[in-house]
Amino acid sequence: MAAPNKIKWGILGLGKIAGKFAKDLKKLPNAELLAVGSRSIKKAEHFAKEYGALRVYGSYEALVQDSDVDIIYIATPHSLHCENTIMCLSNRKAVLCEKPLAVNAQEVRAMLKSAHKNQLFLMEAMWMRYMPVMLKVKYWLAANKIGEICTMSADFGFLPKDTSPIKRLYNKELAGGALLDIGIYPLTLAFMVFGKKPRKILAEAVLGRGGVDEQTAMILSYENGAMARLFCSIRVGTPCEAVICGTKGSIVIHSPFWHGGSATLSVNDEKSITVTGDTGFYFEAADAMQCLKKGHLESSLVPLSESLAITECMDEVRQQIGLQYPADQSNAAEKLDKPGTKTYSHDQAWN
After folding, report:
1. What is the pTM of this model?
2. CATH fold for the domain made of 7-127+282-298+325-337
3. Is 322 strand, coil or helix?
4. Best label site of 2, 120, 144, 316, fewest CB within 10 Å?
């Protein structure tokens, strides 16, 4: 793909998260929000007016067929990520897809196969990994500042204002629940800290009236005896802090840890060091654009192999807690030959 002076973006699915992304995109001088697509033309028009998009489409299909769009940010519910991504790739569009990349590993593999087949860029929008403070934490770990890592803990819990079972977070049809929506953050942090899949996972959960997990606890074990304790909840607010402990000291990523706003390094009897940094969605967008300009098909910071491995871990957790989604019964690979998108009566974008 030829790299123009400005990368022209499209946004597919126009919920709250898409609005935050569009707002941050304005901070990048080489980015242009060219087009937005929604199942509701009125919603698309309102979004375009608020965030300055030049073109408006009342369907996802029309958006992906715009030949001037270079890359599409997908912000639909989890259950649509695979289908929407493959539709974009099949129409020669690079993709930055909201986390989780897909509902299960089968879908992720289908998406990776499509990206490889079309030789197009694909990346999971795990914005946490790009924060300057998170990069500093990664440096501390690589520099052995706290010695051998023995344990880490991380939690993410909040109580939504609307707990209706038809809402996305509690809706099984839309792959709702705590694990896929917010549990992916502590799990991704564990991958950043330990750099690999755990040897073993133990999980327990509370399934709510909608059939999705409303609280999930995970213990991850590694070959060297290290362990990670992770927790997520959409039943209650939690401290939302991460602590990494090693033989020489510790690192605390302060609440909310996934924002990566500040972290403190404590080493033995030395004076603690606290670092702070900016947060936002423009860091991941900037990396995606840099990859496009260099002709890379994936990001080195959020590689597709890691997105797949994290999804495989979430599949294992869901198997242990007895949570299945409709997508688990479908054959995602078939969508490679059927790039069109189903028609849905709702337009419940990621919020």
Report:
1. 0.93
2. Rossmann fold (3.40.50)
3. coil
4. 2
